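User: Assemble these into one structure.

Assistant: Restating your components, then the assembled model:
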Amino acid sequence: MTEPLDFYFDFSSPYGYLMSEKIDAVAAAHGRKVRWHPVLLGVIFQATGSHPPVAGASSKATYMMHDFHRSARHMGIPYNPPSRFPLPTQNAARAFYWLHGQDCALARQFAHAVYRGFFVNDLDISSPDTVLDIAAGLGINRDQLATALQAPEIKARLKDECEQALAAGVFGSPHVIVDGEHFFGADRLPQIEHWLASGGF
Amino acid sequence: MTEPLDFYFDFSSPYGYLMSEKIDAVAAAHGRKVRWHPVLLGVIFQATGSHPPVAGASSKATYMMHDFHRSARHMGIPYNPPSRFPLPTQNAARAFYWLHGQDCALARQFAHAVYRGFFVNDLDISSPDTVLDIAAGLGINRDQLATALQAPEIKARLKDECEQALAAGVFGSPHVIVDGEHFFGADRLPQIEHWLASGGF
């Protein structure tokens, strides 16, 4: 089969960032493309009754903050713990979908720039100005994007994408679907590779 | 460093079972031993305010039941989904600690037999009779063990082990500690191998 993989993520998700740095190359090694779907974990958690994995000051929350960084080192990916975490990501996600309607390769570049801005350069990606700055750095028209971020149709688009993700069974970030098979978490990347190489196992 | 690894698990934990089939060999490849610590996840979750990962009928719960089986195939480990799940495991854990006081190699064999009984042969490991049968199959005196399972000191021992695990920062199963570094989940086995090979990364 040669259907694209579907990659669901929130721009505030550290494991989503780790997956974003690897999934295209893993898919390409098996002749596959990837469709990227930024979603809002707040919406997903509310609808599924799930909990954010790092809520509170528990030993598990402490562990996970440590594990983000160690997992990045294990995977050979740059990572600097953001000083503000987690952050709302609707502006970044709306910008992605607006760009995607015009130039899907540029939207992919923008997604990488947002993730690296947050998890390497400690940018406040919740701020519309920061989102516009990141876009402008890629040659995108700042004023057009600023207008688009306020447009009802782009807000409706993000809402619709979250609903479609829920309908597809997405409950967290990163969540990858390969030929109907669901993989949750950056740590499932070896299983995704195994699945692509074997056509299932 | 050549300190043993500490491996915490609940006998009802599928990912704990997967880790139990691999951790000794991974440690041995780097000249390390492993101390096994069965604990009760109910006690751990109550104390840490965590939630069982597969509570309810959510899309996440459905995913995890599927992921247990797929992860076992990925790791090359036999797995048959138990018909009763999860189960209380205090009898199996108490039997382990009683045996461990007499013959730690036999206690390890018993732990493997309990896990395989549950996750391969669908035994009801919550039942004292089943625990006694598994032990008898390894040549352990059934009557002595039956008496030990009722002894206040062995009940206190398990309680104490759960408290020590909590004090060490354990919040789930499997949870492995290597030279003070914590690894949660069977999917962290590659990171444990990386850590042992490099002395940290």
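Chain B touches chain A through 29 residues (CB under 8 Å).
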